[in-house]
Write a structure and sequence with these properties.
A hairpin with a 2-residue loop joins strand 3 and strand 4. The chain has 3 domains: about 70 residues, no CATH class; about 325 residues, no CATH class; about 100 residues, no CATH class. By secondary structure, it is mainly β.
């Protein structure tokens, strides 16, 4: 037994055996009142003669016994006020307070049902562009396909590259996989398909050098083929129309999206194309003999760095697939589809492995679709959704990275569930304080993380933020190889650098039908672009009586401006 005073509090601690490591239940007495939830361990050392005892340390553990039910502490409150024996906190001013989550900022990822047989995927990419994408549908023939089925027409969502052989030009019917009206994912990050788990339930394997959460992801729709003028037309679901010219000889073209170049092989006869969807420089790449599982897939990278692996789908030449050739249906059309949301280990303060959260979609009876709510789990088994007592149709949970999950599960059995994920822009922790008085919480940032941030310079915009340049009076900086807007102004030249004179900058005025104008400054090199920008900024261009001029020189300041 040890007695001591803490301020005005008299503490008596008792351990029935000071030579073991066990705690004695109810070993704490404060001001002569037994603390039933307070356990004590006193560790002693006894000399060889056993005539001297030394106290090494005293341990105290207070069990969190709530007044009613489980102990729940909302933000702005402390543990003390909810304890059955608050005096067990030893001193009247001591407390453990919870002041809420760190304010890291969040982005939203949502799986939103449309009716009872389709889902849309909503996300914001690293450029701040918002996408609403047709994701899964069971509307046609009871099979589950990626994309949607509207007015009798199937429109596929394609994220797996075609079985296109590099030496085969252009892609034939079996090699192309994107048809007019199909949607497709572009992203400079990808995975190799898994050969063992056809439903996508295995752990995704990233392609060499592509485990990067700062990738730019886009979703586009293939609108049309103009075989007379060799023009392909696309719609970016966030920014608008894009057109590219393809070679009539071999069907090659380049599509620039988010500053990334994606190679295309087009077949104007069948109106089918194949695209290097993960920007690894290869149009269609089979990683193994099993073509159902070997193709590269594009992975969606969201704002904040979440990586969304959409599962697996049948290649175009799989004639046994539900829906027949060309139906980009789920690999397990009559069962389930697994997708993964991955947070890389490097995004955590301390982690040795990536975090993977699985979300499982199910093809139900009568062409219904939904989620297996009990299977929404993380690979570290931390995430678990709990239904609220006050709102039984809502379940909530949080993973170790600080992502907040809210599931709306309608009380009717045939209505699909909706899942909303608040993904933090950096790892989100909690504000917990051990206090001996009042506490004041301040809003602070979270951990350092990789994030692509647009540069806010006046009214400047990234090219990816401008859908239709004709709506503005604009100054466009950069050549067509790096700038989507410049490429559109110049008619998507092929190759992209051909329209800019070597070792010079081009300054050109474009006048639009609505009265707006655009001034393009495009350099053959980075130095040339700076020279052109300086000529515009300093007024050196003012002496040119023409709509087009070139700028040349040896340095940024030593320049010559000539009319074209």
């Amino acid at each position: 037994v040890v007695r001591f005073y803490l301020g005005a509090q008299k503490l008596e601690v008792k351990d029935s055996n000071g030579e073991d490591q066990a705690f004695t239940v109810g070993g704490m007495t404060i001001n002569n009142e037994l603390i039933e939830d307070g356990d004590v361990r006193i560790r002693l050392s006894v000399n060889s003669a056993r005539d001297r005892v030394t106290i090494q340390d005293v341990g105290y553990a207070l069990r969190a016994d709530a007044l009613v039910g489980d102990l729940f502490v909302p933000p702005g409150h402390g543990v003390r006020e909810y304890l059955d024996e608050p005096e067990g906190m030893l001193a009247s001013t001591w407390d453990i307070r919870y002041e809420g989550l760190l304010d890291t900022g969040v982005t939203t990822l949502k799986f939103h049902p449309i009716g009872r047989d389709e889902y849309k995927l909503e996300f914001t990419n690293q450029e701040g562009l918002n996408y609403v994408v047709p994701f899964l549908s069971t509307r046609q023939n009871g099979g589950m396909r990626y994309g949607d089925f509207t007015s009798g027409n199937a429109r596929n969502l394609v994220f797996m590259e075609a079985n296109h052989s590099i030496g085969s030009l252009p892609p034939d019917l079996e090699e192309g996989n994107i048809h007019v009206q199909d949607y497709f994912v572009l992203s400079d990050i990808g995975t190799a398909q898994l050969l063992d788990n056809k439903d996508g339930s295995g752990s995704p394997v990233f392609a060499t050098g592509q485990s990067d959460n700062t990738a730019f992801s886009r979703v586009l729709k293939f609108e049309s083929v103009d075989s007379t003028n060799n023009v392909l037309t696309f719609t970016d679901l966030a920014t608008g129309t894009k057109q590219v010219t393809f070679s009539g000889t071999d069907g090659t073209a380049t599509l620039i999206a988010g500053g990334i170049s994606y190679a295309i092989r087009a077949n104007e006869t069948t109106n089918v194309i194949a695209i290097d969807q993960n920007a690894d420089g290869k149009v269609g790449e089979v990683q193994a003999a099993d073509t159902r599982g070997g193709n590269q897939t594009a992975v969606i990278a969201t704002e904040g760095g979440a990586l969304v692996v959409l599962g697996q789908e049948n290649p175009y030449d799989d004639t046994s697939a539900t829906g027949g050739p060309g139906a980009m249906v789920a690999v397990n059309p009559q069962g389930v589809v697994n997708i993964s949301i991955i947070t890389l280990a490097k995004q955590f303060d301390e982690a040795s492995t990536d975090q993977t959260v699985k979300i499982v979609f199910q093809n139900r009876t009568s062409n219904r679709i939904g989620m297996l709510t009990t299977d929404i789990k993380s690979n570290d088994n931390f995430l678990s959704l709990t239904f609220l007592t006050s709102e039984p149709e809502i379940a909530q949970g949080m993973d170790t990275y600080g992502s907040f999950y809210e599931l709306f599960d309608p009380l009717t059995s045939d209505t699909p569930e909706e899942l909303t994920i608040e993904y933090p822009l950096s790892q989100r922790g909690v504000q917990i304080f051990v206090t001996a008085g009042s506490v004041q919480a301040e809003t602070v940032g979270g951990a350092v993380t990789e994030k692509v941030v647009p540069i806010p310079v006046g009214v400047g915009k990234l090219a990816s933020e401008v859908g239709d340049v004709t709506l503005y009076n604009a100054v466009v900086l950069g050549g067509p190889c790096a700038n989507d807007v410049a490429a559109r102004l110049m008619g998507n030249p092929e190759p992209c650098f051909a329209s800019v004179p070597e070792n010079k900058a081009l300054i050109k005025l474009y006048e639009h039908a609505n009265g707006n104008v655009a001034v393009l400054v495009a350099g053959f090199s980075a130095l040339n672009t700076r020279q052109g920008a300086r000529a515009l900024l300093t007024g050196d261009i003012a002496g040119v009586d023409a709509k087009e001029a070139t700028v040349s020189g040896t340095t940024v300041t030593d320049i010559t401006v000539r009319a074209v």
